[in-house]
Amino acid sequence: MPSTGAVHNSSDTRGAEASSGGTAASAVTEPDLLLQREGQLARIILNRPKALNALTHPMICEIAAALTEWADDPTVHTVLLTGSGDRALCAGGDIVSIYRDARTDPDENAQFWADEYTMNAQIKRYPKPFVALMDRIVLGGGVGLSGHASHRVVTERTKLGMPETTIGFVPDVGGTWLYSRAPGDLGTHLALTAATMTGADAIALGLADSFVNSTRLDSLVDTLKRIPAAAAIAEHAASTVPPASLLAERAWIDECYAGNDLPTIIARLQQSPVASAHDAATAILAKSPTAVSVTLASLRRARDLGSLEDVLEQEYRVSLRMVAGPDVVEGIRAQVIDKDRTPVWQPGTIEAVTDADVQAHFASLGERELRLPRAARRSS
């Protein structure tokens, strides 16, 4: 991971106020977000390494504001996204805040997702090259930040995924757009099981573009300050991408995950002669029955939607409905708050989740609908 410390010759350095709940003055607290200028390069550095650079609401708002400003700045040629520390680009949203707000201030979660999804769409249509260094852990909201970038760089250390079903939630931030467009049903498998993929897998599934060895990231960052993004990445990218292990699993995955009926999918997985299929069934059955049922429906619907904006608007409906139910709070409690890893889902079985229950998550929100602007990304 490139160094994210002080930058020499920086013409613009700003930071969002730390929002981890403490009361220490900003003078002695590292900001959660660093926005820096280095020549023609504008940098977004997620700066919560102890929290695996998890996103807070203030971070999202400041990223969006910086992107708006840089879009019209003729001296900015490229935007670069990285994360501080040596563990993650971004492990997702701050789920402790989501847990707290789900119990005390549901409107805050609604605003958080509205601002986050708007930012995801902003990145997708950004008029300048947006380079995301997807090194090490990239999960959930981290995929939303990087997976819609114009230039997505992975390494041999990349560990990428959408783990939302583990906490009783559903893939969002455009994750159902990306996963529904992966080859065959590889995205369905990853979404339902909450499994992760390698950098090579991410390229094969369409979630990344270039493979750069981690030892060359510092040099890549330096080159981005001087020449266009595409040329800089081409200069550092590996000529041969390592094999994508997930592609070798595609035959049984496509066979087992076909269709829209989750009980049938699980039965196929359990009856498969492939041991990995049995593991997948076990993983799905441990998740929230509502979450995996709604996730499957979300993916199938996303396949037929024509734009990322359409999918994000659908995800917004689903997210608000999911957080209003019992499983998100219970899932976060079990995984993060009490850490007993024994969530009690309501209902407790997939068979108890009716089609009407699932479809209710997609109903219009009326005046609360998220309405994103439509604009094509200009060539970069």
Structure description:
The chain is α/β, with parallel strands linked by helices and 380 residues long. It has 16 helices and eleven strands. The strands form two sheets. A seven-stranded mixed β-sheet has the order 1-2-3-4-6-8-11, sandwiched between helices. Helix 2 crosses helix 3 and helix 11 packs antiparallel against helix 12. The N terminus is likely disordered.
Number of helices: 16
Oligomer: single chain
- Taking all Cα atoms into account, the compactness measure Rg is 20 Å
Distance between the termini: 25 Å
For the biggest β-sheet, the strand order reads 1-2-3-4-6-8-11
Shape: globular
Give a quick account of the main beta sheet: strands, pairing sense, barrel closure: 7 strands, mixed
Number of E-type strands: 11
How does the SSE layout of this entry go?
Layout: E1 13-16, E2 33-38, E3 41-46, H1 57-71, E4 78-83, E5 88-90, H2 95-104, H3 106-124, E6 130-134, E7 137-139, H4 141-146, E8 151-154, E9 159-161, H5 175-180, H6 186-193, E10 196-197, H7 199-204, E11 210-211, H8 217-224, H9 229-236, H10 250-256, H11 262-271, H12 275-285, H13 289-304, H14 308-324, H15 327-337, H16 355-360
Parallel strand pairs: 3-4, 4-6, 5-7, 6-8, 7-9, 8-11
Antiparallel strand pairs: 1-2, 2-3, 9-10
What are the defining features of this structure?
single chain; 380 residues; alpha/beta; 7-stranded mixed sheet; 4-stranded mixed sheet; 16 helices; 11 strands
Give me a quick take on this structure:
By secondary structure, the chain is of the alpha/beta class. 43% of the residues lie in helices and 12% in strands. The strands form 2 sheets. A 7-stranded mixed beta sheet has the order 1-2-3-4-6-8-11, with helices on both faces. A 4-stranded mixed beta sheet has the order 5-7-9-10.
